[in-house]
Amino acid sequence: MTARTKKGTAVSVGWLLRCIAVLLAMALAGGGWAWYHVHHWLPDRAIYPTQGVEIGAQDGNVSWKSLKAIGADFAYIDASASASGRDPHFVANFEAARSAGMQVGAVHRYDPCQPAEKQAANFVTIVPREADLLPPAVELDELADDCPQNVSDARVESELMTFLNQVEAHTGKPTILKVTARFQARYTIARKLDRNLWLVRDRFVPDYAGRAWTLWTANGALATEIATSDLRWLVLRP
């Protein structure tokens, strides 16, 4: 190999490495921009004038006055889960949201492995019956696949109806179904139960329920300076 050939090879390798370094830098910059955009994106208020937030113990301490200031008109507060789980921050968050001038509702995380009566009793024990509360919400995400005993799809549906009837008797209002895509794909519950829907999909309008939604979790990881963790940001359908 001649000296000129060796020099040419060295130049080619150096040029290739510089190109790779530039491409990596561009990829990192693009990834950083995408992460920032997703975590700071809010739905257009001209399209969705009423917006809100879902808050639970997982969100840590939040400034409710600051939430109100950045545009949260209402709040759904995580209240209970399954037959005995309770959010330890429910009462404090509930009272703070009301004091900040927001409309407030409560959320129960449904467990298809547990009896409906016990879950309803758990919810109604912690959530007050007051006329000015938003409709209660039940989060439907967990499947019955991992239950200790076999629970048929028909059983999931019938137990859920029992839960809804008991909660609605307590609150005096129809329950809103917070249905995730995987729960809907398995049980097609949105087509079977005549209740308002709350769907979940970051950034893009959800359509997996087959009919119109009332609430939408538009950004499940909104980064702000007013909470210790990312927030779940909601919009109300106009």
Structure characterization notes:
This protein has 238 residues and is α/β, with parallel strands linked by helices. It has two domains: 40 residues; 190 residues, TIM Barrel, CATH 3.20.20.80. Helices cover 40% and strands 20% of the residues. An eight-stranded mixed barrel has the order 1-2-4-5-6-7-8-9, surrounded by four helices. Strand 1, helix 2 and strand 2 form a beta-alpha-beta unit. Helix 4 packs parallel to helix 5. The radius of gyration is 24 Å and the shape is globular. About 5% of the residues have low confidence.
Keywords:
2 domains, globular, 238 residues, 7 helices, TIM Barrel, alpha/beta, eight-stranded mixed beta barrel
Strand order of the largest sheet: 1-2-4-5-6-7-8-9
Shape: globular
CATH classification, class level of the largest domain: Alpha Beta
CATH superfamily of the largest domain: Glycosidases
CA radius of gyration:
24 Å
Structural class assignment: alpha/beta
CA-CA gap between termini:
74 Å
Q: Domain count, please report it.
A: 2
On the 0-100 scale, what is the average pLDDT? 89
Fraction of helical residues: 25-40%
Return the string of H and E elements.
HEHEEHEHEHEHHEEE
Our estimate of the beta-strand percent is 15-25%
- How many distinct helices? 7
- Identify low-pLDDT runs: 27-37
- Fold-level CATH name of the largest domain: TIM Barrel
Q: What kind of sheet is the major sheet? A: 8 strands, mixed, barrel
